[in-house]
Specification:
The chain is mostly helical. 70% of the residues lie in helices and 5% in strands. The protein folds into 2 domains: 145 residues, no CATH class; 143 residues, no CATH class. It has 12 helices and 4 strands, in the order αααααααββαββαααα. Its main location: membrane.
């Protein structure tokens, strides 16, 4: 068996296991989804801080940054699900203050670098992942909270569909580079093809849910599902490009090797880091003008 075929098999097996874990983790039970994404948040921040610490004059506290990100995710999950009050965010705020003040005493060569990368780990990773809870939990008029598992799952279905559609379309039709300075492999034809596949996936999800009476998704017409798919395509692509710029700046090919054949956590979740908050803004905008 050639090395190329072996790598393809490893990549396919890893991808299948990854998708299965994500689908079951998101749709099974709310506590399972929370634990899954708390782990994803922690692993991604740990990977990110390890990468930036390889740069000159950077010494981010990996443990506290990772713990803070996980705690923030759990605090948002608790608040959105109605289990904890807003006071749950106070320890996180104290941790942020500590990370700022501690640089006064550590005598690092460039504390601004440490501050910048520490806060970037929270803004770029912890905050976007935490927004999955805003998608998953909805307050009803009678004061109860419902678990809208279809929204976060649909978002990832759109991302996976976009990746697959863009790859197939780009391989067959790709002629015009989308962003050659950062990602030479991406083409406009691939991006358009990915968007078309996502529109089809959005329509399928809509028609599968016609007749449902409970939850936010039951009241979403077809055009709103198509709009959500388009938002995920655009911001997911930007998320991919942002991570590509991050890796180019650091001079690395993959962010890690935790997922055989797929690289690291940032490689796997780069698109979602912009698509999740964009989806939240889109859905809340619809509610404002509904």
């Amino acid at each position: 068996m050639s090395e190329k075929v072996k790598n393809l098999i490893i990549r396919a097996i890893t991808g299948a296991v990854f998708v299965a874990i994500m689908v079951v983790g998101i749709s099974f039970r709310p506590d399972v989804m929370i634990l899954l994404f708390a782990a994803i948040t922690g692993l991604t921040i740990w990977e990110f801080t390890g990468l930036v610490n390889q740069s000159e004059n950077v010494a981010v506290n990996r443990f506290i940054s990772t713990a803070a990100g996980i705690y923030f995710f759990l605090a948002v999950a608790g608040y959105c699900s109605g289990l904890t009050p807003s006071a749950a965010f106070v320890p996180y705020l104290l941790t942020v203050v500590y990370l700022l003040v501690s640089e006064l005493y550590l005598k690092q060569t460039n504390p601004i670098n440490n501050w910048a990368y520490t806060m970037l780990s929270q803004m770029y990773i912890a905050l976007p992942f935490s927004m999955i809870n805003v998608l998953a939990f909805r307050s009803t008029p009678d004061g109860n909270v419902t678990f809208e598992w279809l929204l976060p799952l649909s978002l990832f279905i759109f991302l996976w569909t976009n990746d697959t559609g863009a790859y197939c379309s780009g391989s067959l039709l790709g002629r015009h580079k989308l962003f050659p300075r950062i990602s030479p492999g991406k083409s406009w034809e691939g991006s358009i093809g990915g968007a078309v596949f996502v529109m089809i996936a959005a329509a399928i999800i809509y028609f599968l849910n016609v007749g449902q009476t409970d939850g936010l998704v039951a009241g979403m017409p077809l055009w709103q599902w198509l709009g959500l798919g388009l938002v995920v395509v655009v911001f997911g692509t930007w998320g991919d490009l942002v991570e590509s710029l991050f890796k180019r700046t650091l001079g690395i090919k993959d962010s890690g090797n935790i997922l055989p054949g797929h690289g690291g956590m940032l490689d796997r979740f780069d698109s979602s880091l912009m698509a999740i908050p964009a989806a939240v803004v889109y859905l809340y905008t619809l509610q404002l003008f509904a």
